[in-house]
Amino acid sequence: MSKKPVTSTALNDDIGEDKRLELYRLQVVIREAEQRAYDLFLQNLVKGTSHLSLGQEAVAAGFAGAMKKGDLSFCTYRGHAHTLARGVPIEKVLGELMGRDNGLMRGKGGSMHLTSEEHGVMGSYAIIGAHLPIACGAAWRAQYKKQDDVSVCFFGDGTTNIGAFHEALNFAAVWKLPVVFVCENNLYMEYTPIGDVTAVPSPAGDRASAYGLEKIVIDGNDADAVYRAAQTAYDKARSGKGPSLIECLTYRYSGHSRADPAKYRPEGELERWKQRDPIKIYKERLKQFGISDDQIAKIDAEVKQEVDEATEKCKASPTPPLEILTTDVYADGGFAWRN
Predict the structure, then answer these.
(1) Where are the alpha helices (DSSP H) in 107-193?
(2) Residue 43 falls in which region: left (phi positive, over 0), alpha (psi -120 to 50) or beta
(3) pTM for this entry
(4) Lesser CB count within 10 Å: N end or C end of the chain?
(5) Residue ranges of domains in the chain, CATH in brackets
């Protein structure tokens, strides 16, 4: 049975004020940190390319907000948002993007390889679809060891046309693995509209039935809708009932990467999506539940100060020392090949 996109018309107070304030703060942290990353790139302080999630903040916030400690996140190269949402400090993320020694991986991983086992962030993967089977492996471990954690795998709409997507979905469904697959459908697979190259209207949702899964398509710009869908999927996974595939409809405000001016988008499309900006939606949601303008402004100001302070720490941090260049290549921490 198909689910219609969940919208703010389905309001109730099941989430609660504390969680809503957390979800709002997470979205603002992601927005401010991503915008700062863009500004630092223009100052030539972020080297190479990077992929921003401006406009997609509600997906990362909603899924992370519903997770328990120990749950695992598997991200794509567009992984800053999910890394921040799991609680990794802003300084660690910006430092990594800037190639500084205070970065999450001491500047050696860069934008597309953010990883923090401590926070349950099990890597950002630059190869399209590569992490879906890996998430299955982590979920299989949890099932085998009778552990309670859920693996949550985020990917873009273009991944649904990759073989690994179908292999992972089939494997997860057959074994009833505790894994949740999350498609962030921002309408474009790099530079190509997903609708131009996919036989079905919902690239993830319409494939679900092939693996015996429910079609779930939600409003990915509404953090409450995302949070509720995540809760349901996590409960299903923890109870041994297997995987879920959730398609979140959203939109990225910038191009695919820093090198992309996104001139392929139809005129007015970006402006229409900005009318449904996830942070704008959530500000109004908070007001509907009695949160004052002062409370909202306080969060905004605190986050901006955190980003400013993190930026200055990163600017002051040195680049990593040469002696760590060949460390952490293999599992033993070194680089020497043995057979």
Answers:
(1) 131-144, 163-175
(2) alpha
(3) 0.93
(4) C
(5) 8-318 (3.40.50.970)
